[in-house]
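Collaborator request, handled under Task 6.
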Amino acid sequence: SSGINAEYGEIPGGYYDAGDYVKFGFPMAAATTMAGWGGVDYESGFKKACEWDNFKSMIKWATDYFIAAHVAPNEFVGQIGNGDIDHSFWGRPEDMTMERPSYRINAQKPGSELAAETAAALAAASIIFKEDDPTYSALCLRHAKELYNFADQYRGVYSQSIPDAAKFYNSWSGYNDELAWGAIWLYRATGEGVYLNKAEQISNSLGNVEELSWDNKAAGVQILLGAVTEKQVYKDRANQFCTTIFNQKPKTQDGLVFIQQWGSLRHASNVAFACLYAKDKGLLTNDVASQAKRQINYILGDNSRNFSYLIGFGDNYPLRPHHGSSSCPSTGPCGWNEFNSAAANPHILKGALVGGPKSADDSSYVDSRQDYITNEVTTDYNAGFQSALAYLIADE
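Structure tokens returned to the collaborator:
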């Protein structure tokens, strides 16, 4: 699978994962599900913000790509572009000339995380489009069911089948969390008990976790199971997760809960959304809602620096995100000189959330294009964040 196979042709659409130009299928699907969760449950928040149509377009741009990449029931193109080749280039996407290999999973080279997460994203989309576009909703659901069956029947670690992905988005937590996550989303989309039974069965083996991320959805599984079944066992797991995160994890001076140095604001946003949802569904005995909301306010500038980590929001925000195309001028050459420049990016990447502080110290954030830990932008950095915003706007 070193080159784009002619039988697939081009697979248009989808999203580059970050400041570079690889279409990594796994985080793209995870971001789509995480954003989709906000749309499924807090549509009113998007509508109050006059963003519902934009939200649906954003989801469909991803799901159209997933449908096109699903070239046979048990075959899925999981990545386009080679990470190392791509990362040796800095410039505009339209100026790329490097080789763009594609990588796939199939029955011989399975990828349960990738297939089940994509199934979850498509199942969430089928709910989102059910009223406005029932034909498209049904198409998403058909592909979701096929991809889930593929994930479940041919079990294997996706980043072993696509070794290039292992360098960038390795599956650290294995595929059981995605098998449960895909099942609970298919249950939400179909109401079919077989999916709920599978999610419940797998949920017992997921253990205690202290993050919710593109790699690990175990906490999301327990929280959604608590919401749909109202069983005490899942409420207890949801409560334990949210209490551990907000009462035991380290915090910066200004109250950011610090989970991991890579994308610390993404981690805080994801747990904020999940625990606000858990509170909304009556799952929590320990009310951490004010701390969860604090994470979003911190990101938007309620901190001692009066600094908004959301590009273009407020008066003081990142000027030099690690993002190729916005670092290039509108015309003329663009390359490593632009990467190394201390000047602000010529284009304002409005709405993108940067990585954030890389330790439990607010001052560890650096607005530098060269610092891809603190200042890169990615699709999954924004996903849980905007779901949390949708909840907070709906709740106003």
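The cover message to the collaborator said: "Residues 310 and 353 are 5 Å apart (CA to CA). The chain is about 50% helix and 5% strand. Please let us know whether this matches your experimental observations."
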